[in-house]
C-alpha cells in the first residue's frame, strides 16, 4: 500500500518582517564586521561557463507601490543545466557558479539585481526538457509565507512554448507574468506584482 | 522490507491550513502584499528538490555567539544571557544535517539595529543582532545570545510584538526554504499578536514557542531554551505494516 506519511507537522511560517536584512543581508543595513560579505551576494567566484546576464526588477504590492524592504532568493542550474549541489547526480556543475543568489531590494528605490548566468535546460519529472528558468523566492514584511515563482526568458520562445510547467497553466494569459524581458545585451527585466492586475503567478510546489 | 524513498515522489505538499494564510487583515501589511489568485499547485522537480549547500568553512568562529560577535574585545551585549538549541528534522522525523540557520533579533530593550527602526529604546553598542549556525550530523544546533525585548510596532493603535527571534532555515532543497519566528514560553503578549494570530491552529502556534530547558542551562551563566524545527519531507512509499516502526 502506498501512502504519504508526514508524521510531524512542518514548522509554521512567519513573516520575515521589516528587519530581515539584519539576519540575511546585514551589510546592506550597515551592520559590518559580523559577516565578511552578505551570503548570496556573489554567485560567481571566477570565470563561468555560458552567458553572463544581469536581471533587475522590482516587486510591487496590490496598490502598485514598490516594496523597498523585500528580499529575493534565486536558485538555478548553470549554463549546462546542472545544479551546484551534492544532490546533482547528472554531472558536475560549473565550480565557479553557485547557482544560488540573494538580493535585498535597494532600500531607497526598491530595485533588485542579480548578476548570474543564463541557465541551461533541466528535465522535468517525466524527462521532458524545461525551458531555461530560475526559481525565485520572495520574502518581506506582510508576506506570511515566502512566495515561490519562476523566471523564464522572452528570448527563449521555442523552449517556452514546450515547457512542461508553462504549458500546463490554465490561465495562459497570465504566463507573461513569468517571463523576463530582454532589455539589452545580457540584461533582463523581471518585475513582480504581488496582487491585482497582472499579478505574478505564484506556485505551491 | 525497507521503506525506500521513491525518487519520483518529490516533496509532500505544504499543509496550507497549518501555515498562516497570505491574507490576514489584522496584520495590515498583509492586505496589499497577499496574492489574490490561488497558488498554482505543481509537484516538485529537480530545481525544487535541490538547493544550495553551505559548509563550516564559510562561517566565522563567532557566528553563533550573538553575545560577542558584534561586541568590542572584552565586552559583551547587555541582557539576559541565553542559549537557544534544538533539532531540525523533516516531516518524516529524519534529522536534517548541515542545515544553515540564520537568526536575527532585537536587543534586550526591544530595539533593532536597522536603518528603518523607529523605537526609542536605545541601541546596545555591543549588540549587532545577527548570527548563524549549521546543524550537526544529527540535526542539532545551538547558539548563544541575549534574550530579546518585546517592542511596539505600527499596526493597530497599540500593538507589541512578543519577544522573538527570527529564523531563516535552509534544508537540502529549495522547496524546504522557510522563515519563521521563535517565541518564549510564558510570554503574555503571544496571544495578543496579530502576526502570530495569522496562524490558524493553536497547536501550530505552540510549535513556535520555545520551552525553558533547565537541563541545558549553564549555572551562573546562561538559561537555555529549546526550539525544534521541522522542514518539509519527501513523499515515501512504504508497506503499511511498517508504519508503526517509524
Ligand atoms: Fe522582529
Q: Helix count of chain B, per DSSP?
A: 3
Q: Spell out the CATH superfamily of chain A.
A: Aromatic compound dioxygenase
The secondary-structure element order of chain B is HEHEEEEEEEEHEEE
Give the integer mean of the pLDDT values of chain A.
96
Number of domains of chain A: 1
CATH level-3 fold name of chain A: Protocatechuate 3,4-Dioxygenase, subunit A
**Distance N to C terminus of chain A:** 24 Å
Oligomer: heterodimer
Placed side by side, the strands forming the largest sheet of chain A appear as: 4-3-6-7-8-9-1-5
Number of domains of chain B: 1
How much helix is in the residues of chain B? under 10%
- Which radius of gyration of chain A do the C-alpha atoms yield? 18 Å
Alpha plus pi helix count of chain A: 2
**Which two chains form the greatest contact, residue counts included?**
A-B, 85 and 99 residues
**Rg of chain B:** 20 Å
Shape of chain A: globular
> What CATH first level of chain A would be assigned?
Mainly Beta
Mean pLDDT of chain B: 93
- Please state the structural category of chain B: mainly beta
Based on the structure given, which CATH architecture of chain B is correct?
A: Sandwich
Output the CATH class name of chain B.
Answer: Mainly Beta
Please, could you describe this protein's structure?
- The complex is a heterodimer of chains A (205) and B (246).
- Chain A has a single domain (36-193), classed as Aromatic compound dioxygenase (Protocatechuate 3,4-Dioxygenase, subunit A, Sandwich).
- The mean pLDDT of chain A is 96.
- The longest helix of chain A is centred in the first third of the chain and has 5 residues, at 20-24.
- Chain A is built from two helices and eleven strands; from the N terminus they run αβββββββαββββ.
- Chain A has helices at residues 20-24, 157-161, and strands spanning 52-57, 59-60, 71-75, 100-104, 112-117, 133-139, 147-153, 179-184, 187-189, 192-193, 203-204.
- In chain A, the strands form two sheets. In chain A, strands 4-3-6-7-8-9-1-5 form an eight-stranded mixed beta sheet. Chain A has a two-stranded parallel ribbon with strand order 2-10.
- With 205 residues, chain A is mainly beta.
- Chain B has 246 residues and is mainly β.
- In chain B, strand 8 and strand 9 (178-184) form a beta hairpin.
- Chain B has helices spanning 29-33, 46-49, 202-206; strands spanning 40-41, 81-90, 100-104, 130-134, 140-146, 151-153, 159-161, 164-170, 178-184, 209-212, 223-226, 229-231.
- In chain B, the strands form two sheets. In chain B, strands 2, 3, 4, 5, 8, 9, 10, 11 and 12 form a nine-stranded mixed beta sheet that branches. A two-stranded antiparallel sheet of chain B has the order 6-7.
- Chain B has three helices and twelve strands; from the N terminus they run H-E-H-E-E-E-E-E-E-E-E-H-E-E-E.
- The model of chain B is unreliable at 1-5 and 239-246 (pLDDT under 50).
- Chain B has one domain (47-243): Protocatechuate 3,4-Dioxygenase, subunit A.
- The radius of gyration of chain B is 20 Å and the shape is globular.
- The interface between A and B is large, with 85 and 99 residues.
- The structure holds fe (iii) ion.
- The site of fe (iii) ion (FE) has 3 residues of chain B, from strand 8.
- Fe (iii) ion binds at residues 161, 164, 166 of chain B.
